[in-house]
Protein 1
Amino acid sequence: MSRRTVNLGETGLTELDPALREHTGLRELYLHGNRLASLPDWLGDFAELRILDLSHQPLALLPSTLGQLASLEFLYVSDLAVTSLPDSLGGLTSLLYLGATDNGLSEVPASLGGLRNLVELRVYGNQFTTLPTEYGGLSALRELHLDRNPLTGLPGTFDQLTELRVVSLRGAALTEFPVALSRLPQLRQLDLRANRITRLPDLGSDAFPALEKLDLRWLDLPVVPEWVHDLERRGCLVYRTAAG
């Protein structure tokens, strides 16, 4: 027996029916918006699964067997009751998108740095203060959303993320400007609103070669250095609370 798509989202489920295992060729599985408190290990048996949505329910633990889903491309695990992600997710070698927002994550696995095909990572609204240096290995990453985490800094390895287009750090706890990002050749948008940065570094005129939008609102910046004005003259939109 085989079905390509099973949508059980928002159906009030409290547990999964083992009969679901019969759908051996499943490509898409939607379980969002239910009342699942746990998941069976056999969820990792769907070798052809491409999309898995587990978001918006009281799940407190994700099974490590999810790391066996070698064909998975989109994983949605937002708004759960989890405080950690299994290290095994680093085995999702086909993953293109990971959404793990609005959880209670106090850290994120270093193993995710091995996801060479990952294009978009959304982990905003969590509780981690640092990111592993291994995330510099996310060589295909184009979008990174880290808003509303108490992040105090970014790894220096982030200058290796040469495909990055969008970085959002709104409402983090940065005290220093993330200089590593200024060297990224493809970066188009950088949002640093509402951080604790009080000084911008001196950068050369070659900083942020492709930047189109820089948001510095709600930062206490008594002085704005010349490279910011260079960006504006180049056509980059720079948003700031007060001109310097």
Protein 2
Amino acid sequence: MPLSEYEQRVLEQLEQDLGQDASLHRAMNRGPRTPVRVIGAAVGVLVGLGIVLVGVMTQVALLGIAGFVVMAGVALWALLGPKKSSAPAATAPAGPAGAKGKAAPPKASKDFMQRMEERFDRRREQGEL
């Protein structure tokens, strides 16, 4: 079932808004985490777990708490740290929506939407819908 004109306008507005979101753009352009960070995190979590176990066996609560803090800190360091960039990250445009100096993501999104519309039109013409 095709979208109404109102739904198409809302969808286009959402696409433009997502294209203007700088934090989303940065998050989507990051590559995988570096192996050093992953290995360091695994070792750090194991060390923290060891400290927790020593704290439990010796019944020293502060040692157990310290071990937990080490585990949580290393895990957060690995998860929230920067990822290895697979390509140079483009900056999001600073101007208002509709400005002439748009960044690549809205254009790529528009190309994607144009391809989807063309596919939809072809299917409708061939009677598949």
